[in-house]
Amino acid sequence: MKFRVTSGDLRGTAQIPGSKSNTTRAVVFATLADGVSVIENPVHSVDCYSTCEVCRGFGAEIEIAQDRWTVRGVGRNLQAPNDVLNVGNSGTTLYIITATAALVDKGYSVISGDYQIRYRPSGSLLAALNDLGATAFSTRDNGCAPIVVKGLMKGGKTSLPGVNSQWLTPLLINAPLASGDTEVIVDNLQERPYIAMTLGWLDRRGVKYEMEEMRRFKVFGGQTWGPFHEVIPADWESACFPLVAAAITNSDVTVHGMDTRDYQGDKAIVDILQAMGADVVVRNHGLDGIRVRGGRELHGIEIDCRDLPDAPPILAVLGTQARGRTVLYNLGASKLKETDRSRVIARELRKMGARITEEADRVIIEPSSLHGAEINGNHDHRIIMATACAALVADGPTVIDTAEYYKISFPTFYEVMTGLGARIEWLPEIR
Questions:
Q1: Number of structural domains, the chain?
Q2: Are residues 275 and 367 in the same domain?
Q3: CB burial of residue 415 (10 Å; 0-12, 13-18, 19+)
Q4: pLDDT band at 335 (very low <50, low <70, confident <90, very high)
Q5: Is residue 264 located within the same domain as residue 394?
Q6: Based on the number of CB atoms within 10 Å of its own CB, is 187 exposed (0-12), middle (13-18) or buried (19 or more)?
Q7: Residues known to be catalytic
Q8: Does residue 430 have a pLDDT over 70?
Q9: Residues of the domain holding 319
């Protein structure tokens, strides 16, 4: 399916849905709990529905309602799945569930997903699970899904490269249920806010662990936790899109539901916008709204993306509308997502006239006058939403294909943006 987006300004207020990263963790923690847990304000995204389906494969009972999900967990009594565990397009689910499968004491689990998932690198996680007593391998012997896992993970010592926090989080979540202690040494950990988020979940469940400088992690085995009632915070990754869109147009937008004290790394968008000269007002840590008024001249800055692997596409759009040079660096983690995001957003924005140069681990963006173009969304929700925001300042309409994939993470993106006045329309499919 395709979006056609025409330039224009935005006005009004918007409510941002719950965090995808937190919702995914909540469903898995609830599955591993003994008893019935309640998750309020979950995001109804395609990725999180995939998490629910694979957790049902392990025996969890999950009831989905609009404002809350109820999960009857199975604790340590995970059943062997009777079918392939299909994670859809969710990389977070792929990695976490691969480690969860290592807790099943009988039978094998087979884990796969869509075509992008089947090329997401998992070899480092598989090697770690084998170090810890499980059997885990790729059916194509390339470190990618389809993956086969057999338990039991018992504990022990292992190491991981730090370029992708999604290899560490699965061990932190699942290792407490192993029989022995687990020690993980991580080299040069990136995406640290996501690990802080995971550790926050462990803290609230009363899980015992030790950590030294985000480099050495020791999780004590033989632990369990009970059911819980959690409210999912709003998603900063989603909030970036209307906030940046407001800053680069002559707009006045207020988003609600945010909290600048949250673990999520993308809350840095507030500091980034302010550093670039945008008019940003944060009321009560964002709980009473974050207001961005466009029309001010923005200026380029250098942005460290080490902890912001999902932000480079929208930051690149922001850079095109800033005076002077904007540099995005430490992009290693962003290259391991649904696409190599720094490369793909550079390619797609160049179609719109953007002046973007890639240099090793950096993307350099010069001020650019954008024009409408035919954009390949690459089935990547963040590329789709970022280029839709770019289209708001482009001369002429922009058409974006695979547009329906925005629902992977921000299921109300279309409603939020059109509710603010964005001129986005669905194009009829040609059959």
A1: 2
A2: yes
A3: exposed
A4: confident
A5: yes
A6: exposed
A7: 310
A8: no
A9: 2-17+234-427
